[in-house]
Amino acid sequence: MPYVQETLNRLQKSSPGQTEFYQAAEEVLESIRPLLEADRRYLDANIIERLVEPERQIIFRVTWLDDKGKIQVNKGFRIQFNSAIGPYKGGLRFHPSVNASIIKFLGFEQTFKNSLTGLAIGGGKGGSDFNPKGRSSAEIMRFCQAFMCELYRHIGATIDVPAGDIGVGAREVGYMYGQYKRLTGSYEGVFTGKGINWGGSLVRTEATGYGAVYFAENMLNSINNSLDGKTCLVSGAGNVAIYTIEKLYQVGAKPVTCSDSQGTIYHPEGIDLALLKDLKEVQGVSLVDYLKTHPKAQYIAVADYPQDGQAVWRFPAQAAFPSATQNELTEADAKALLANGVICISEGANMPSTAKAIDLFIAAKIAYGPGKAANAGGVATSQLEMAQNASMTYWDFEEVDRRLHCIMQGIFDRSSETAKEFNEPTNLVLGSNIAAFRKIADAMIQQGAV
Q1: 332 neighbors 309 (Cβ within 8 angstroms)
Q2: β-strands 160-163, 71-82: how paired?
C-alpha cells in the first residue's frame, strides 16, 4: 500500500522541514497498516490525509518587556489537531527548541494518546520558543500575560483546554489563567494544572511519572513479573523523572540514574530522591551538585557522553524509563540497554526513542511501552481535573490516584488486546496506534466530511 510514502510526500511539500512531525506520522501510519488492509472504510473515507492535517494552526507574535525595559519578541503556537472525540487537550511548552515541527509532532501524538485514555478529549499542543531559564518571576509573568492576550481567543472549557509541559509549571499556568480571567471575565476550567486551592487536582504533578510506572507494572504483570527488586534507569530530572523515581521506590524498585542538560548521575545505591527534589524543585541547580552530598556517586558530563548516544542508558539494569525529551534514546543506546539486561521500557517522555531504537525493542519482544500509551497519565489526570471543575467537586489524593491507576490499566488492556487481535501480542506500538486510530477514525466517519 503506497499511502504512507504518498502521505509523507504531501506533508513534506505542504509542511517543509518538519522532521519530528514526519517521524511521528510515519511511525503511526506504518503501524496501522494491518488495520487499513483489513478494513477499506478508512481509506475510502480519506481518513489518513485528514488525520495528519491539523484542524487549525495558530501562530502568533508575543511581544513583552524584560526587566530592563527592553522589548522582547517570541513566537507563540497552538496546534488544534483533532476534535473528533472531544475538545482539544494538550500542554503548552516554553523552550528555545520549540518550533512548528515540534508542536505538530506533539499535537499529533497527543491526539492518539488522548484517544487511548478512553476519555472524551481531542488532541492539541502549543507553546513558545521563550526560555524561562534565567528569567525573573516578573519577566515570566509579563511573558505569560502577553502570550495569553492572543491565545485566549482560541480556547475555552468546551473548545480547547491547555495545560503545562516543559517550562510551564504551576506558576506559569497561574499567570496565564489569571490573564485569561481578566480578559474574559470567566472563571472556568479552561486550564488544567491549576493551583490546588483554585480548581486544580491532586496527583496532577505526579501523574505522568506515576502513570509510566503503572504501565510498566501492567506490562510485567502480564508475563508474571513485576518491578519489585528491579534496578531501573531513568533519564531527566524534571517533573516526570522525579515522580517516576518516587513511584519506583514505592513499588520496590531501585532507580539508579537521572540526568539533566549538563550531565548524568549514576548512583548504584539508588538515587537520593529527597536531594534530587531539593536540587531541582527548590534550588534549580545542576545535578553536578548531587556529588556534594554523595561524592561516591558517578557524574558524567555531556562532553563525556558516548558519541552515539546518552550515558544514562549505558549501565546494567532490568527496566528503563526515558523521561526527558524526544529522540533521546538512539539505536546504539537501545543495543546497550538490551545487552545490559533490560527487559522493560516504559516511556515517560514524548517519542523519546528513535525509529531504529524502537525497531530493536520490537524485534527483541521485550515489554516496551511507547510514550503515547505509557505517559498518558498526565493528560488523563488533567481530564480528571476537568471533570472535577465541571461538577464543582474535589477528590482526595487516593481517589485521583485510584482513577489514574484504572486508566493506565485500561490503556494497557486496549493496547494489548489490539496487538493480539492483529497477531503481534508483544507489539504495543502496533496495538496502541491501532486502538487509538480506530476510535478517532470511527468518530470522524460518523461525523461526516468535516
Answers
A1: yes
A2: unpaired
Residues of the chain with CATH 3.40.50.10860: 3-189
- H helices present in 16-169, as ranges: 19-31, 33-38, 41-44, 47-51, 100-116, 137-151
Between the CA atoms of 239, 242, 245 and 251, what dihedral angle is there, to the nearest 10 degrees? -60
pLDDT digits (tens, 9 = 90+) for 396-432: 999 999 999 999 999 999 999 999 999 999 999 999 9
Cell numbers at 71, concatenated: 522589548
Residue span(s) of the chain under CATH 3.40.50.720 come to: 207-365
Q: In what order do the strands lie in the sheet with 231-234?
A: 254-255, 231-234, 319-321, 344-346, 367-369
Other CB atoms closer than 10 Å to residue 174's CB: what's the count? 18
Check residue 80 and report its DSSP letter: E
Interhelix angle for 355-364 vs 331-339, to 10°? Answer: 30
Angle, CA 235 vertex, CA 339 and CA 380 arms, to 5°: 115
Which residues are marked as active site?
125
Beta-strand pair 56-65/71-82: antiparallel
CATH class of 207-365: alpha beta
Per residue in 325-343, pLDDT tens? 999 999 999 999 999 999 9
Q: What is the CA radius of gyration of the chain?
A: 21
Quick check: helix, strand or coil at residue 70? coil
Q: Which three cell numbers stand for residue 357?
A: 531504537
Q: Is 448 left (phi over 0), alpha (psi -120 to 50) or beta?
A: left
Architecture of the CATH domain 3-189:
3-Layer(aba) Sandwich (3.40)
| Residue listed under C-alpha cell 527548590 | 282
